[in-house]
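Troubleshooting: if your tokenizer reports a length mismatch, compare your output against this known-good record of 154 residues.
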Amino acid sequence: MDKWLPAVWLIHNTKKGISSCEIARALGVTQKTAWFMLHRIRLSQHEKSGNKFSGQIEADETFIGGKARNMHAHKRAQKVTGTGGKDKTAVMGILERGSKVGDSRVRTKVVPNRKKSALQAEVREHVLAGSALFTDALKSYESLTEFQHEVVDL
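Known-good structure output:
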């Protein structure tokens, strides 16, 4: 306990994270031991999958990938064909609004596409029925009748 509790304190009180080498120096253990402790502490902090979001929920999706203007000319000609999300990764985010500052929680996941089946499956997996759901006007979010669905389109 005299090593584990200080390790938990070190991990939770660093803004940008901490390496196993730093933990090893601070606690006087080997780097291998510090790495083991770090991974066990991180694993214990993960949320269990049965814990669904409730209350006011926001859901949105986006494409993640490099901009064409930042690519070299020959790579741009090979990779960029058309517009939109081609050659980019679709990512969905679901946010549970908190009542106090810092109480909000977010989950992100890579989704195969922006189709109704993929996006609605993620919403149903992570959000409790009856919650207030706020999305954009994308057609894929239509017919989520088990939620109090509101469209925000600015």
